[in-house]
Amino acid sequence: MAELLEQVRSARAAGDCQRLTDLVPYARLIGMRFEPCPEGEGLCIRLPYRDDLIGRPGSGSLHGGLLGAFLEHGAIMQILWEGQSCYLPRIINFHVDYLRRGAQETTYATVEIRRQGRRVANVHASAWQSEPQRPIAAARGHFLLTPPEGSDGI
Amino acid sequence: MTAETDNGAGIGLEHARRLFRGSPHGALIGLELVELGDDHLIARVPYRPELIGNPETGHIHGGVITTLIDQSCGAAVLMATGPAERIVTLDLRVDHLRPAAAGRDVYARCECYRLAGEVAFARAVAYEDDPAEPFATSMSAFMRLREGVGRG
To answer: How far is B7 from chain A (nearest CA, A)?
Structure first.
């Protein structure tokens, strides 16, 4: 656990959120990007369009499961970036509402940590494309912040 | 559970197979159809280092499980509606009971347990060996998009 958290801490200390991009293999596979927000502070969480993100052949729409995955990973990295967790947050549950189809363009995530206690964080996240006020998916979830109990426990 | 079996649903079965084989994103993560029963469907994602969410433990990313479940539940609903219909996911909830074992392929067993006029409801368990010992459970709802019927 230490290595990844160490890398997040050093990226934060350097104010270089682009370093978060390559930390997790799955996020690298789908091509997620972490960048400084153009306006103000914080993380800009972005998923550039690629043909292999499409769900059904010929639909031209992003895979629904992928949009959930994007929001979930955005939430985890936001918790780490804000620096309150001493461990990699472990997902307890995640509930995604699908509002509009995901078009063939860049998708962004906005993550709000509604409550962060010692053991658990409650996070709301939404995905949007060209217009931030027209989300394509919205999710909420809980993440465990405690040390892992061993291979078996959550 | 390793052979793709036929539930005798004919066109519905072929449609489900096409959905899995033809999905560009399904191909990226290695999603494959394993079994089609009369009332359920089983799909799998083989373990690969590229799917890891926790580099220290080797656990697969929760998002991979979400994608496996979303696609499989959608296909289970299409088995119930017939291939002529289009559906969209309204919402999907996944409870992660424990991490999926590192290094193991992950399976989802899905069923459409209620097909109403406008909406279909599906549930799923995700597991390594035994559906009775899942590492994740899920509930989802799908909107049916039929000819002449608008969305939502």
So the answer is: 22
